[in-house]
Amino acid sequence: MALECARNALLQNTMDNKENTDKFRADLMNIAMTTLSSKILSQDKEYFAELAVDAVLRLKGSTNLESIQILKKPGGSLKDSFLDEGFILDKKIGIGQPKRIENAKILVANTAMDTDKVKIYGAQVRVDSMSKVADIEAAEKQKMREKVQKIIAHGINCFINRQLIYNFPEELFADAGILAIEHADFEGIERLALVTGG
């Protein structure tokens, strides 16, 4: 009985400010600053409360906090922290690759982009001349060229692979104006799929 009375009193006095954006933001700021008061960030709690509230408001009602990525970089001060729109996959871009892509059409893969050598343990290939070795290498190169062409045929401008991309396919992607990223980590790929809706 007492529990029900307390619950009813709380429900009657509860205010839902989500329709009033200014009050809703003020409520979120109060919650964030209260949480940050006891943390290491207490000196800069208002600044970090602003960052946290802005990040949560960008979710537009979603409760999936996995959409918020926090990257920590050494150096600088706490006030150098900032919130940025978009997605960051922390990778170096290869030589000759585009540095910026607008309206990205992304293909994510987990495929071998090294030369397709004989992948049977203990297998040996015997040749009786260097020209036959060159023929085998040319055939491997042609096979890789065909694989890259099949990837390019999807109409992409960004190829992200979980595995290594050797120089030859990387050159082919660069010649086609496609940004190729290798060794993408699983967490980054999952977050990319989340933010792109794929």
Automatic annotation (TrEMBL):
Keywords for this protein:
ATP-binding, Chaperone, Nucleotide-binding
Does the record bear Chaperone in its keywords? yes
Record bears the keyword Chaperone? yes
Q: Please provide, alphabetically and separated by semicolons, the GO molecular function terms listed in this UniProt record.
A: ATP binding; ATP-dependent protein folding chaperone
Entry coiled-coil feature ranges: none
The protein's name: Putative TCP-1/cpn60 chaperonin family protein
Q: Which organism is it from?
A: Zea mays (Maize)
